Amino acid sequence: MAARGIKYGPARSENTEPFSDLNITPLIDVLLVLLVMMILTIPIMTHKVPVDIQPGESDPSTATVHRIDLNANGSLTWDNAPITDAALPARLAGFMKENNAQLQIRAAATARYERFDQTLATIKRAGVTRLGFVGNERYAKFGDL
């Protein structure tokens, strides 16, 4: 039996063997779409409002505590009295003039994050540093759900 030689070079038209190279164009298209999606979603995930909170040096038993509640429907209350968004900066300015006063903020579990973020940004613009977050205990086991 005679051995057949293997020819290297361009394929001739009489060669009927199947083409075994992989077409990677769809793979590259999918990778580019994933890259674009990551580029679009990363700024959304890194959005934050930096708030400079400093440890309290006052006596909590003698401190005047004011509380802002963010309800599930997005409305605000200041010490259990309804307050509008327009009136909040004036209330915060009055709070800043009080000595030994603390501000606490509590958001309902079903309140929108965007609304909480807006309220927190207003508090930051007022220069509040004596701020406490109330009700975060319910999120202590958030990862265990």
UniProtKB/TrEMBL annotation:
Amino-acid biosynthesis found in the keyword field: no
GO cellular component, one term: plasma membrane
Keyword line: Cell inner membrane, Cell membrane, Membrane, Protein transport, Transmembrane, Transmembrane helix, Transport
GO molecular function terms attached to this record: transmembrane transporter activity
Predominant location category: membrane
Transmembrane segments: 24-45
Compartment(s): Cell inner membrane; Cell membrane
Gene Ontology BP annotations: protein transport
Topological relation to the membrane, as annotated: Single-pass type II membrane protein
A Pfam cross-reference name: ExbD
Subunit and interaction comment: The accessory proteins ExbB and ExbD seem to form a complex with TonB.
Biological role stated in the UniProt entry: Involved in the TonB-dependent energy-dependent transport of various receptor-bound substrates.
Family: Belongs to the ExbD/TolR family.
Protein name: Biopolymer transporter ExbD
